């Protein structure tokens, strides 16, 4: 009888989350403890490449079908510890994984619904080598450990797609998305950590994401790089209204990020709470080669950058309080993967899904309709996701060889609900001529500065093609 009683109580006394700064060996152990508690809804895996020092980049996925993209289920990701000495996000991500699992097991209806209709990926540390160096030197310096082990700032290391986008705007070129194939040279070698994340972005059709930093308290949204090249200049993207909304979702659900009366950070003590706890990236300071803008311009993913606080390496005893300050913001932001519209694009005759269909949106809410000059595309199953704020829109599906189709949709504020579904069944265009358009192979490789640069670009173009693979090119964790 006593044994039965003990068996019943064991789940209640499951190992509590240990608030501390987890090292690079303990990080995968935490993720696998979560997987052991929730094996049916989680998967621990590693990104394709390791850090400079050979440390795997571990991620955990939450889904009712781990390892698979489900049609009409948006893909979401969180990335932390890109700068190795900015460590709070790393611990928040480990706690978030533990929390999602525990709440799911407890039968929390909100969390169960969120996991059932969203595929959530969490990468606690993009720069484990920098974390190691920052920790070994006491975690007190503002710069030590920021870069990877090749002394490269990973948030300046992505291919600069902004310059391509801005050039296209000036030249009135319509191409405004998935710009990686247009890169003709790199300004510096792509680091293994950066390359791993690029491959991840290209392999999984992410819809929404955020990455976490430290040093201030603000939610930062695109563009991060200024259009004119100025050090400080508000540089709006075509989706400026949606990005402002996304940033405000995080800031207003944080305990005090949007508080105009809180204490500010930095040498001048400026309080971003006076502007709602949000900022346009380039209006703060211009960053080229950043991950945030790369997501937006290379894929269908909308990403913001969250600065979690003035201290880059807070004391371990402050971590529980920091979790409580960020918990609601972390959860509410994931739900934003369901704003706007989604649907499936198919061949109206055969019913086959049509990938790479361009989804173009015009905002017709006001008397002056505005084309949103950033398109998304359908993926390998024909499904698409278009994040939008409330209003009235014309949504048009374009596919080579088919007649375009336009539908008018009213997007409403529907908290904790799935996006409105708008499907398209495109009919073949009888007047279509199969033009011999330029392919990826038409890149002029003579523009490369050297053979190493050429090799890197060939790899990136290959990664870009991975966007329509049916399964992500990712490795299972050796700990699974």
Automatic annotation (TrEMBL):
Identification of the protein by name: Peptidase M14 domain-containing protein
Species this protein is from: Nezara viridula (Southern green stink bug)
Cofactor requirement: Zn(2+)
Subcellular location: Secreted
Active site: 307 (proton donor/acceptor)
Family: Belongs to the peptidase M14 family.
Keywords: Carboxypeptidase, Glycoprotein, Hydrolase, Metal-binding, Metalloprotease, Protease, Secreted, Signal, Zinc
GO molecular function: metallocarboxypeptidase activity; zinc ion binding
Main location group: secreted
Cellular component per GO, a single term: extracellular space
Gene3D superfamilies membership: Carboxypeptidase-like, regulatory domain (2.60.40.1120), Zn peptidases (3.40.630.10)
Peptidase M14 domain sequence ranges: 20-337
SMART domains (alphabetical): Zn_pept (SM00631)
Pfam families to which the protein is assigned, alphabetical: CarboxypepD_reg (PF13620), Peptidase_M14 (PF00246)
């Amino acid at each position: 009888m006593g044994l039965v009683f003990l068996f019943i109580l064991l789940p209640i006394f499951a190992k509590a989350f240990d608030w501390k700064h987890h090292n690079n060996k303990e990080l995968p152990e935490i993720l696998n403890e979560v997987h052991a508690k929730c094996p049916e809804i989680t998967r621990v895996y590693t990104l394709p490449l390791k850090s400079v020092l050979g440390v795997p980049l571990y991620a955990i996925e939450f889904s009712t079908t781990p390892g698979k993209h489900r049609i009409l289920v948006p893909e979401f990701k969180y990335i932390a510890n890109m700068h190795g000495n900015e460590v709070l996000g790393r611990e928040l991500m480990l706690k978030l994984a533990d929390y999602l699992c525990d709440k799911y097991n407890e039968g929390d209806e909100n969390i169960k619904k969120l996991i059932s209709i969203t595929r959530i990926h969490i990468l606690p540390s993009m720069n484990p080598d920098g974390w190691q160096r920052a920790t070994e030197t006491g975690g007190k310096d503002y710069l030590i450990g920021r870069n990877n082990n090749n002394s490269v700032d990973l948030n300046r290391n992505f291919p600069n797609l902004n310059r391509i986008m801005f050039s296209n705007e000036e030249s009135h070129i319509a191409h405004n998305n998935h710009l990686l194939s247009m890169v003709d040279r790199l300004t510096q070698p792509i680091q293994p950590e950066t390359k791993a994340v690029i491959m991840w972005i290209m392999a999984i059709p992410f819809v929404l994401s955020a990455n976490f930093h430290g040093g201030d308290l603000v939610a930062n949204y695109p563009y991060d790089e200024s259009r004119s090249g100025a050090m400080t200049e508000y540089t709006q993207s075509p989706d400026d209204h949606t990005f402002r909304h996304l940033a405000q979702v995080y800031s207003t659900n944080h305990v005090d990020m949007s508080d105009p009366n809180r204490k500010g950070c930095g040498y001048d003590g400026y309080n971003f709470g006076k502007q709602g706890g949000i900022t346009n990236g380039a209006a703060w300071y211009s960053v080229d080669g950043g991950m945030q803008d790369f997501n937006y311009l290379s894929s269908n993913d909308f990403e913001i950058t969250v600065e979690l606080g003035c201290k880059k390496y807070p004391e371990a005893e402050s971590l529980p309080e920091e979790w409580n300050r960020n918990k609601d913001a972390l959860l509410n932001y994931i739900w934003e993967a369901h704003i706007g519209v989604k649907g499936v694009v198919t061949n109206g005759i055969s019913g086959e899904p049509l990938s790479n269909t361009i989804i173009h949106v015009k905002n017709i809410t006001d008397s002056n309709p505005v084309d949103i000059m950033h398109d998304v595309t359908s993926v390998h199953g024909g499904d698409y996701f278009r994040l939008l704020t409330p209003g009235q829109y014309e949504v048009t599906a374009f596919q080579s060889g088919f007649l375009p189709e336009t539908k008018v949709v009213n997007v409403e504020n529907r908290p904790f609900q799935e996006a409105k579904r708008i499907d398209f069944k495109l009919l073949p265009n009888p007047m279509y001529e199969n033009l011999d358009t330029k392919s990826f192979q038409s890149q002029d490789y003579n523009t490369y500065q050297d053979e190493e640069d050429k090799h890197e670009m060939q790899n990136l173009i290959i990664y870009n093609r991975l966007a329509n693979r049916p399964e992500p090119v990712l490795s299972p964790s050796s700990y699974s």
